Each structure stands twice: as structure tokens, then as C-alpha cells.
Amino acid sequence: MDLFQAMSVYVKVVETGSMTAAAQECEISTTMVGNHLRALEQRLGVSLLKRTTRRQRLTEFGTAYYQRCLEVLGLVAASERLAEQAQEEPSGTLRITAPLTFGSEVLAPALCEFSLQYPKVKLDLVLSNLRVDLLDSGFDAAIRMGNMQENSRLIARPLQDYTMTLCASPEYLKRRGVPTKPQDLPAHNCLTFAYPAGDDWSGVDKHWRLMGPEGEVTVEISGTMVMNSSAALYRSATVGGGIVMLPDAYAEPDLREGRMVALLPDYKLPSRPMHLIYSPDRYQLPKLRRFVDFAMARWGQQIASAQ
């Protein structure tokens, strides 16, 4: 006996009210419907239906078994749909929003690789430090920095923290000297970022916080330039403008090649949490599932903990 088919036939008998109607729905003979029912009852050892010449009705066990059959058949159908979705080639437009610096320096180059893997996906990347409404604005996914506010409509997957490095160019350090402790910073020209009011880091342009062997140290700094662009700060620092707190997305290549020098290595700078945000409803789309897998493999917290 094919148990799955027998359960399907039984459900049709219950829903249509007769073996004849069930036979028509299942495109088999009435005799075969009866064979499936008898085989089920023999397997279970109990009656499912009470039959008379005029009608049939479910036994108490038959009613409970019908509900269980619906659950089993539903799970099988869902599993088949999942397999179909997994095999479906991602396509269509994938809209993503991300912060300016991370988006331009890290995400955009990585998306070139994603595009090679999934050429039928058209990527629409919007870079902004503003927090847009993901659903109302029609985005499939967002990468966001800062503490997350609970939203039951969205899934937030933690990424590696957004980290920073205190650095300066060799030319500047030759001219002004190398600071060896946080207390040396007020005597230097410190280039600072102008965070908007209400931002998690508003006020950082006047004070820098560093975590070292003696705990957290806060120093008041000053300089000749305040900017609201990481790119502008980066360019100014590379030509010897001063000491800067740069996102690692900018600093790492220059530090490796000696164009910038990391300062105060015994002190850790503040970092910001970062998350990948998306709607559970849209996650059913192959294009979004593939992007989530791609992003988590590159920037998920498990990658950071393994390093």
C-alpha cells in the first residue's frame, strides 16, 4: 500500500462526502478508493468510516485521523515547494540600502562578485545614512549600523561590528611627532566627523573615547577641520592633514601599504553594531535568500569569532 496516496484518497472521501466523488477527484475507480480505505483501516486496526446504503460518517478516530492527515499532507506539500524554491534560479531586481561608507567601500565591490554568481539578478543599491522604512520604500534588504529597535515585522541578523582605527599619514607624523598615549592627542590636529544631532555618536567630534589597559579614557580633541563625509576625512588625512578616526573600510588598504600609520595600538576605539535587515515574507524569494546567504558568509558574526 502507498500510505501517502491512501491518506490523500481518505482526505478526498471525507471532503467530498462519498467514495464516488472522491474517485472522480483522484481520477481513479470507486473500487480503488474502497481498496485504499480498507488498506488504511487494516493498517491502523480501527474503523475510519461508518457506512450505510445512504450515507457515511466519520468515526471518532476517523475525525482525529483526518486532521492528522491534513497536517502530514500539508507538510509534504510545503517541503516540495521549498525544494522548488531552492532550485529556482534567482532573478529580478534586488533593492538594497546601506550606509554610505560601508556601502561604497565594502558592499559595492562585493556585489560585483554576487552579480557574477547570479547574472539574472539586477542590483539596485541605495547608499544613505538615513534609516528608511524598509517595507514602505520597497527595499528587499538593508544593512544598518547602531542599536536596533524591535520590529516584529522584520528579521535582523547580526553582522561583524563596524570598527575604526586611529591613524595618520607618515608625513604628518614626521612633522608633528607620534602620540604615544591618549593624553597626547589634544596637542595634535585631529580631523573629526560631524555626526547629525540624535545620532548614536553625536558629540564624538569633540571627544574621543578609547579603551585601554587602564579602562576607558576620554580626551577632548580639536582640529582645523570638521566634515560630514568619511571620504573627505580620509582624503585629508592621507595628504598629511592630521590624525583621524577612520572606518576600517577605508583604513585597512592604506595601513597595509604604509600610506597610513595606526596609532595607539594598545587602545581600542568604539565600534558600532551592524545588522542585515529583511522581511520574512520576502525571504521566500530566491534572489533575497541568495543575498542573505552571501552577506552572512562574508560579514556574519560567526566569521569574526572564527578569526
Description:
The protein is of the alpha/beta class. The chain folds into three domains: 84 residues, Winged helix-like DNA-binding domain superfamily/Winged helix DNA-binding domain (Arc Repressor Mutant, subunit A); 97 residues, Periplasmic binding protein-like II (D-Maltodextrin-Binding Protein, domain 2, 3-Layer(aba) Sandwich), CATH 3.40.190.10; 99 residues, 3-Layer(aba) Sandwich (D-Maltodextrin-Binding Protein, domain 2), CATH 3.40.190. The strands form four sheets. Strands 4-3-5-14-6 form a five-stranded mixed sheet. The longest helix is centred in the first third of the chain and has 28 residues. The chain is rod-shaped. The chain starts with a helix and ends with a helix. The C terminus is likely disordered.
**Average pLDDT reading:** 87
Main β-sheet description: 5 strands, mixed
Following the backbone from N to C, one meets helices and strands in this order, namely: HHHEEHEHEEEEHEEEEHEHEEHH
- The overall number of domains is 3
What is the CATH T-level topology of the largest domain? D-Maltodextrin-Binding Protein, domain 2
In order across it, which strands form the biggest sheet?
A: 4-3-5-14-6
Secondary structure topology:
Layout: H1 3-16, H2 19-26, H3 30-44, E1 49-51, E2 56-58, H4 60-87, E3 92-98, H5 100-117, E4 121-127, E5 141-145, E6 155-162, E7 164-168, H6 170-176, E8 190-193, E9 207-212, E10 215-220, E11 226-227, H7 230-238, E12 243-247, H8 248-257, E13 261-262, E14 272-278, H9 286-299, H10 301-306
Parallel strand pairs: 3-4, 3-5, 8-11, 8-12
Antiparallel strand pairs: 1-2, 5-14, 6-14, 7-12, 7-13, 9-10
